Amino acid sequence: MESDFKLRAQGLTRDYAGTRAVDGVDIALAPGEILGLLGPNGAGKTTTLRMLAGTLAVTAGTVTLAGHDLAGEPQRAKQHLGYLPERPPVHPELTVDEYLGFCARLHAVPRRQRREAIAAARADCGLEDTGRRLIGHLSKGYQQRVGIAQAIVHRPDVVILDEPTAGLDPNQLRGIRELIARLSRAHSVIISSHILSEIQATAARVVIMHQGRIVMDEPLGETAAPVVEIALREAVTA
Ligand code: ATP
To answer: Domain ABC transporter: where (predicted)?
Structure first.
C-alpha cells in the first residue's frame, strides 16, 4: 500500500541542459528505516536527493510522502522533510540557537514551540551546551551536528542527509554515525556516500547508483556485503 512507505519516488528523472543525470529512479523508504544511497562521484546521488527533498525540479517522475504527491504540496514537503545538503551553508557569525531559530521559522514551527523545538534538536544532536556558541567557533564535526539539527528542528518524518560524514576525522565520524543511528528512532533516514563502509556502518539497506540509474537495491546483512562490494566496484570501474 502506498502509505506504508514514508517516502516513495517513482521514475525520478532529471536532465541538465539535455544531458540525463538521473534516469528513472524508484526508491521507497519504510518508516524508521535508514537507507544508504551509494555510488561513485557523478552517479546522480545529490541530484536524486535534491529532487526527493523538493529543492530541485524533476524532469519526470513523482515523489510521494505517505501517499501525498509532493509536487503540488510544497508546504507538506517543508513540514515533513528535513534536508542536509552536501555543502551546507555555514553561518559562522550566528550562534547555534540563532541559526536553529531561523531554520525553525523557515519550516513554519509555530513561534511558541520554537524554543522547545530548538532545545530538542540540540539534545538529539549532542549540542546541549552549545546554544550560545558562535557556529564559526565550532569544530567541523560540531558544525555538521548543527547541520543535522537544522534538518530535524521541525520534527520531520523523513531526514535526507547528503554525505553527512564527508571530510570528518575518525572521532567526529564516530559521533555522527551514532547520531544517525539514533535519528531512526524518530525519523526515516536517507544518507548518501561514495564509501561503502560509511553506508555499512549506518544503513540497513543500500541502493547503489551508477550513471543516473539504480543498479542494486539490497538489505545490508553480512551475506549481502560482498555482493554489494562487487556491484560497487563494477560501478566505479565501468
Ligand atoms: P558526487 O558524489 O560527486 O556529489 P553525485 O553522485 O552526487 O556525485 P550529482 O552531483 O548528482 O552526482 O551529479 C550527477 C551528474 O549530473 C554529473 O554528471 C554532474 O556533472 C551533473 N550535474 C550535477 N549538477 C549539475 C548542474 N547544476 N548542471 C549541469 N550538470 C550537473
So the answer is: 7-236
Q: How far apart are CA 45 and CA 39, in angstroms?
A: 7
Question: Which residue has the CA at smallest separation from atom 17 of ligand 1?
Answer: 42
Residue-level pLDDT, tens digit, the chain, 238 residues = 445 678 999 999 999 998 999 999 999 999 999 999 999 999 999 999 999 999 999 999 999 988 888 887 778 778 899 999 998 877 899 999 999 999 999 999 999 999 999 999 999 999 999 999 999 999 999 999 999 999 999 999 999 999 999 989 999 999 999 999 999 889 999 999 998 888 988 999 999 999 999 999 989 876 566 777 777 777 666 5
Whole-prediction pTM value? 0.92
Q: At what angle do helices 96-106 and 111-124 cross, to 10 degrees?
A: 120
List b or e across 113-136, with b for residues whose CB sees 16 or more CB atoms inside 10 angstroms: ebeebbebbbebbbbeebeeeebe
How many angstroms is it from 48 CA to the middle of ligand 1? 10
ipTM over 0.95: yes
- From residue 163, how far is each of 94, 190, 195 by CA, in Å? 24, 10, 9
Amino acid at 230: I
Q: Tell me the best of 37, 45, 83 to mutate to test the pocket of ligand 1, counting ligand atoms within 8 Å of each CB and taking the most.
A: 45
